[in-house]
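User: My instructor asked us to take a sequence, write out its structure as tokens, and then describe one feature of it. I'm not sure where to start. Here is the sequence I was given:
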Amino acid sequence: MGDVKGTVFYDGLVLVKGERLAQDPPRFEDANGERGMWGEQPFTNLLRNSSAEQAGPGVQSWANEIGTKIMPAWPPSFPSDTLVSLLDWKGAGWYYQATGANLLRTFWAKFGWGHISLAGSKPYRALAVVTLLGMAGAGWAIWQRRHVLPWEVLLLLGLALLGIWIPAVIRGIGSLFGWALIPVARYAYPVIIPTVLVLNVGWLEILRLFGQWLRITPKVQHAAYLLFFVALDALSILTITRFYYGR
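Assistant: Let's start with the prediction itself. The structure tokens for your sequence are:
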């Protein structure tokens, strides 16, 4: 008769810790299949929405087909995967947390093939604070000068930043369903200069505000600004030297 092709649908899937009797099927206590009794023992289903009772927004198949031509070929992903990940933070939050941390580290100082981390006690936490200060300072500087800034230029700059950084963030969204790929900052290389420009505007604004508060002269502010990057460069050189020659 030949092979018969068809589709098999599963319903009421259960995943629990330990061993349970297959002869005694689980009995659910709620419509979503989250809790119940199995072999006279209560259980909490580790699978969420195991019977597909909970619906949500989706992406049309034609949009998915177009999106696959734009999105990276590996790991395989669809536009719908991004939507699902945003709606299921409990299941996909680890990816965005890992991606955010890796983008920060590789943007600042992670060397080789991403296997040489900056030396010191949790240096990336300090760099995360510096990054947030730069972003906050840039936002404040733009707000203070909102009446004189060329907004058409800022709009173009903002679209360029979002148009590159967002794809960089979701570059490995297919990791939710297969091999893990955590993006690095080089995927945002086309807008590295605008990114650094925005951060520098913010840092200079923060230094100016602190200078007014603590009555620090502009020369001292600029010296502190340069000293930070000199120290970071020195630490980076020390990190690489110790990794290859200090063992």
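For the description part of your assignment, you could build on this observation: The chain has two domains: 12-55, 96-245. Try explaining in your own words what that tells you about the chain.
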